[in-house]
């Protein structure tokens, strides 16, 4: 596109980002395997958030840059801010200046993007993993779940090397590459019951029903 229109790649990316934020049916994904494309949804549905609700989401996203899909959450939050009415957006921006975060740096973008793609597409991911004793191994993993405990994120999946479910600390994954092999159907139930304080991020507690 840059060559076709005689502009820089940076200009094309900037224009695509502006179109995406305006509600155009575009999606973007950073890192290896990423790019731009047309989404099935033609426009962003209307949202109605108070300034405090918008800032609450901004704070949650900003405080967890190492969370899965954090890049997509950040771009999604920008879309929400862009469709707020001007007075509400101005109040949200003023309130956001009063909320600061100091969070650890996220894992390597290439690793994170590969893990996210593998989980979303349910394909085997090949990782280079360093254990707590410093031993490095190459493993093919069928991703089942992302989990956070004690402030650290894990990839939980079926390890084809060990033939068992394993928890992999994402910070110790040195490299990750999505393969063409599909997952074979391992489910969350195989991991076992979650702790009493754990819950899915959809916000519902189905255990009481």
Structural commentary:
This protein has 209 residues and is of the alpha+beta class. The protein folds into three domains: 1-42, no CATH class; 44-106, no CATH class; 109-195, SH3 type barrels (Roll). Helices cover 33% and strands 26% of the residues. It is built from six helices and seven strands, in the order ααββααααβββββ. The chain has a five-stranded antiparallel sheet with strand order 6-5-4-3-7, covered by helices on one side. Strands 1-2 form a two-stranded antiparallel ribbon. Strand 5 and strand 6 form a beta hairpin. The chain starts with a helix and ends in a 27-residue tail after the last strand. The model has no long low-confidence stretch (mean pLDDT 85).
Topology (SSEs and partners):
Layout: H1 2-5, H2 9-21, E1 26-29, E2 35-38, H3 51-63, H4 70-83, H5 86-96, H6 109-121, E3 123-130, E4 136-149, E5 152-159, E6 164-169, E7 173-182
Antiparallel strand pairs: 1-2, 3-4, 3-7, 4-5, 5-6
Helix pairs in contact: 3-4, 3-5
Poorly predicted regions: none
Structural class: alpha+beta
Count of the separate structural domains: 3
What is the approximate shape?
globular
Key phrases:
alpha+beta, SH3 type barrels, 5-stranded antiparallel sheet, two-stranded antiparallel sheet, 6 helices, 7 strands, 33% helix, 26% strand
